[in-house]
Amino acid sequence: MIRSFDVYVPDGDEARRWAEEELSNPRYADAKPTWFDLLARDIGRFLRDLFTSENGANVGPSALIIVTVIIVAALIAALIIWGRPRSARSIRAARGDLLGADDDRSAAQLRAEADRHARDGDWDTATILRFRALARGLLERDLIDPAPGATAQAIAREASTVFADESDAVRRAAVSFDDVRYLRHPASAESYRELAATDDRLRARRPEAVLA
After folding, report:
1. What are the protein's UniProt keywords (predicted)?
2. Residues 166 and 198: beta-carbon distance below 8 Å
3. Is residue 172 classed exposed, middle or buried when 0-12, 13-18 and 19+ CB atoms within 10 A define those classes?
4. Which among 23, 101, 152, 207 is most buried, taking Cβ atoms within 10 Å?
C-alpha cells in the first residue's frame, strides 16, 4: 500500500525567516573570509591575470619583472613599517603585573612618581619606582619580552641584549632594585641618581640606532 504525504511549503515571509535563522548559525561566520583572505585572493588574481600569455605578450618580460619587484618591495616595506606583531605576553606585561606589582601606570607616570619621592628624600621608594619605569619603558617600546613574573635580573639580561654597551649599568640598576625591594638595604641619593641616569640614557636611545 502506498501512503501519500503532505509536503509543507512555507510562504515567503516564513521562508525568509528560516533562511535568516540558518545563516545566523556561527559556522557560517567562521567560514567567512577575513580581509586578509580577500586581499590575498585579489593579489593572486592580479598576478595570475598579469602573467597570462596574452597580457605577458602585451606588457613584455621586462615590465613583468619590474612589476614583480615592486610588489615584493611593497610587501617588505609593509613588514618593516608594521613590524612583527607584539606577543600577548609582552602586551600583558606592558599593561599589568611588573616586578611583583599589579601596576598599569605608564613609564612616564612611574618616573614622575619616582622623582616625587626622590625630592622628598624617600630613596627606597624612588629606586623601586624608577627601575619599574625603566622596565616599563622598554616594554612600551617592545624592546624586551620578559616571561610572566620575570625578575629584575632577567629584565636586565634582556635589556643587555639590546643595549650591549649599557649591560653593566642595567645590571647595577637591577641590583639596586633587588637590594631595596628584597634585601631591605637602604638606597641612597647617589644610587638613585645612577639608576635614573641609566633610565634616561636608555629612554633617549632610538630603537633604529640600537637595532642597526
Report:
1. Membrane, Transmembrane, Transmembrane helix
2. yes
3. middle
4. 152
State the CB neighbour count (10 A cutoff) for residue 184. Answer: 8
Mention every residue, 6+ apart, whose C-beta is less than 8 A from residue 94: 136, 139, 140
CA–CA separation, 33 and 52 (whole Å): 26
Per-residue pLDDT band at 167 (split at 50, 70, 90): very high
The closest of 187, 170, 182 to 127, measured between CA atoms, is 187
Q: In the block, which residue shows the cell 635580573? A: 153
- Please tell me the distance from the alpha carbon of residue 5 to that of residue 43, in angstroms, as a whole number: 52
Compute the radius of gyration of the chain from its Cα atoms: 30
Q: What is the grid cell recorded at 17?
A: 525567516
Q: What share of the chain is helix, strand, coil (3-state, %, to 5)?
A: 70, 0, 25
Residue 147 confidence (pLDDT)? 84
Residue 101 pairs in a beta bridge with: 98
**What's the predicted TM-score (pTM) here?**
0.56
